Amino acid sequence: MPGRMDDPRPAGSRTLATVKTVGWIAGALLAGALIAIVVVDRKVHLADTGSDSLVPWWMFVAWSLLFYALYWVGFRYLVQTLRRHDAASQRLIRDLTEANENLELAQTLGRTGTWTAIRDGPITWTGSAAQLIGLEPSKTRITPEAFIALIHPDDRKRALSAYLHALRTRGTLALDLRMQPPDGGLRWVSIRGAVAEDRSRIAGTIVDVTRQMHAHERLVATEHQFRILFDDNPMAFCVYDATTLEILEINKAVVQQFGYSREELIGVPISAMAIPEQRSAVAEEVEAYAGKPQMAPRIWSAQRKDGSIRELRIHATAIRFHGRDAWLILAEDVTEQLARQRELAYRATYDPVTGLLNGRAVADALQAQEDQPWRLAYIQLRGLELIEDSLGQAVGTRVMQRMARRLERLGYEYGEVGHLRPEEFVLAVRDPARWDQALRELREELSRSVSGAGSRQQLEAWIGTARFPDDHPDAMEAIHLAGLAAHLGRAEGHAMVAFEPSMSHKAGHRLRMAARMHRALDNCEFQLHFQQIRDLRNGRTTGLEALVRWPQPEGGFIPPADFIGVAEDTGLIVPLGRWVLQEAVRAYQSLVAAGHEGLSIAINVSQVQFLKTDLLRDFDEVFRAHALPRGALHVELTESILMTRPEQARALLAQLQERGVCISLDDFGTGFSSMAYLHHLPIDAMKIDRAFVRHVHVDRRNASICQALLQLGHGLSLTVVAEGVEEQAEYDWLRDHQCDKAQGYCIARPAPLEKILDSLEP
């Protein structure tokens, strides 16, 4: 029924229904009343007249109908008016309800709520306000005491004082508090409020600012950490404005390294740190990186306050510094490092004793001009070794250097000149028309004695000649052909011999050597000797390098240099290499059986094996047959092998490493070009060539090279092994300079495995 308390209709709809019901009832009562009036009035009229004539009844009916009609018209108008008001009120209620829901949702999502505190009364707030401090949304009323209990104890006094002060002064309330919800944890809230005009209540908002406070704490910690890393860092750091390029901040290291005070540098352009001739270029560089996140590393030459020059590797990244775009610069002083690299580059291109180009550099120069015909003169001297033996190495070196100066003049005049081996040089003449004249001057210079140790020293000389690219399209091979002619001339007693394709002596010798190697492989004549590799930190042997030896029936051994090259050229290196691999595995098993399972075996792999055979298959067969642990075998390769086909080499090395084989870069430092690729190669160790180890304790150049190589290797997390250590002083120097391992005659000479086992500590 209308008006019932449990009627689900809105109040406006219930009122309209009640009016309509009452209207219908009133209309029915009115109609009955009119009918009754007509009947009564007619009876009264008959009684009064006493006659049978009727009062005109239709007049009463007409008036009744008219009145009744007017009633219903008015009633209908009333109902329609009420209906319109009802519809409007319904829309208003819906809008208010939706707005309230949206507000509640917005407050929930924004972690915001509203509250009202009645003076000496309870605190009421929205459900979202209750939620953000850990209460149920339905708990929209709380006593002041209960609210204070939710505040962190350290903040309660401050919160109560601020609240009372706002009431007393009719001011505003602004508080950041820590709340302790019933469910545990800690939340930061920001409370803002204002006092009503009558001071009976205070109302406002409450916002969850936990994330903001944590972010602020992290920002403060980050700023603190930045200041520690920036101010106290031993590396030089500088911040400059990205727009004006003016220095905004520097750390202590800048002051210490460059001698300027902080006040002298703040506000000056960053380019002012560079040497005068580089300042405009530096300014253009930094401007070119505007809007970019990082600056590519580069080298700047900086001038210190005392005028000295330091070379800096600049690392820069864009940052926000005190609200402005800026750049953070790390200035790494690489003066000594670059000097060592230049020395390495020099040593890789030039002979360190004579200052002339080495053989590879000469070949590269010729190869770069292969369209130009060249004439080559290979010079082989004899007598330097005798001078060193009789007068000392220093005298022999001076004699060789003076001869080099003579040949250097010819190189400047006619083309290129290089120093190949201690007693061998090459002169490359660019213009064939001047070849005869160049040869005459060359022979004149070689025939003149050289001063040394207060006397004149006469050297013998043999010259072999060849043509590039006519005799061979590869410059290095053409030089070798000229060298072959010189060797033949020396053997036959001719001072100068031109290479001819008909020369068969060398080829015949190589063929005979190849035939002997075939028989030796079939008859198992080859042997493996092993040289110990020692850990310089504890003096213990950590591994053995396998070396091929070819004994002769009359005693002694054929030098490996005499047959390894033949094996590589004829392909015999492939079966020889497989034999070495099998024997190395057997040697490792013998080590394990003798209780030395911690030792590894290193084998050398040639370019032919590495690039032209299925080396992986050979290792797979060995590992399947013997179940070797990781690190049992080491493979040593030279830089030239890896540089022939860098991508193929990199992939093959990675596959070998996956199989547990350790990779060592042998004779490192003799091929500078590979340094650019070194950090990309999957290698475990690098071996310093014996040429750099020799006299390292007294030779400053070799010491600088070794220090640079040690730094490079350790910087790449490689084990560094020094080869050819022949003197105790060399061993001590390497140990004192943190070289990891070493091998050489000073430690142990190569020997059969049986002798090695007898000498090893149990």
What name goes with the CATH superfamily of the largest domain?
EAL domain
Q: What is the radius of gyration computed over CA atoms, rounded to a whole number of angstroms? A: 51 Å
**C-alpha geometry:** elongated
The CATH class of the largest domain:
Alpha Beta
Provide mean pLDDT, rounded.
82
Overall SS class: alpha/beta
Strand content: 15-25%
Largest sheet: 8 strands, mixed, barrel
Number of separate structural domains = 5
Give the strand order of the largest sheet, numbering strands 1, 2, ... along the chain: 20-21-23-24-25-26-27-28
How many helices? The count is: 27
CATH third-tier fold name of the largest domain? TIM Barrel
Explained architecture:
This protein has 27 helices and 28 strands. The strands form 5 sheets. Strands 20-21-23-24-25-26-27-28 form an 8-stranded mixed beta barrel, surrounded by 4 helices. Strands 3-2-1-6-5-4 form a 6-stranded antiparallel sheet. The radius of gyration is 51 Å and the shape is elongated. Residues about 1-5 have low confidence and may be disordered.
Report a brief summary of the structure.
With 762 residues, the chain is of the alpha/beta class. 49% of the residues lie in helices and 23% in strands. The protein has 5 domains: 95 residues; 104 residues, Beta-Lactamase; 102 residues, PAS domain (Beta-Lactamase, 2-Layer Sandwich); 166 residues, Alpha-Beta Plaits, CATH 3.30.70.270; 242 residues, TIM Barrel (Alpha-Beta Barrel).
